[in-house]
Automatic annotation (TrEMBL):
GO terms for molecular function: dTDP-4-dehydrorhamnose 3,5-epimerase activity. The active site is at 61 (proton acceptor), 131 (proton donor). Catalyzes the epimerization of the C3' and C5'positions of dTDP-6-deoxy-D-xylo-4-hexulose, forming dTDP-6-deoxy-L-lyxo-4-hexulose. It comes from Phocaeicola coprocola. This is dTDP-4-dehydrorhamnose 3,5-epimerase. Belongs to the dTDP-4-dehydrorhamnose 3,5-epimerase family. It catalyses: dTDP-4-dehydro-6-deoxy-alpha-D-glucose = dTDP-4-dehydro-beta-L-rhamnose. Its EC number is 5.1.3.13. Homodimer. It comes from the Bacteria. The gene is rfbC. One of its GO terms (biological process) is dTDP-rhamnose biosynthetic process. The record marks 137 as: Participates in a stacking interaction with the thymidine ring of dTDP-4-oxo-6-deoxyglucose.
Amino acid sequence: MNVIKTAIDGVVIIEPRLFKDDRGYFFESFSERDFNAQVRTVRFVQDNESKSSYGVLRGLHFQKPPFAQSKLVRVVKGAVLDVAVDIRKGSPTFGQHVAVELTEENHRQFFIPRGFAHGFSVLTDEVIFQYKCDNFYAPQSEGAIAWDDPALGIDWKIPAEKVILSEKDKHHPLLKDADWLFSYGEELY
């Protein structure tokens, strides 16, 4: 696998080594040994999958300690814009984000470490999205910030009037008003 560093330390894009021929393709989507050696030591404990249509925007979500999560995400069908936002107070990249397009054609994966909010927007008619988490879902530990916070400056690549949100995602606070954030330097693993 090829690990591509981003402008924010710890947030990486992973490109698998693809083997193609007239029958189709094959690639190793995850190797614990290689991931731990090249990205960071993480033990994934839960896999999730969602199906969404064009305009759906999910996020920006995170889980608070002791249930903080890292995620390794990828698209099986369609295309999304996937976003990680640094929400660690005191971080030199606090409030900054990394956005990457994940598609069924590029087979890229995106690693979002603990201490970041995560979200994605659906760019095609239909998307099947998969993610590995290194901690179990804990509803009492949910946190979120507004997807459209102007201070974040995220271009979701879909017109705002086409965005489809869950009722919950319509009511998250701006980053500056969030009642709980991570602290830079806090041990999250």
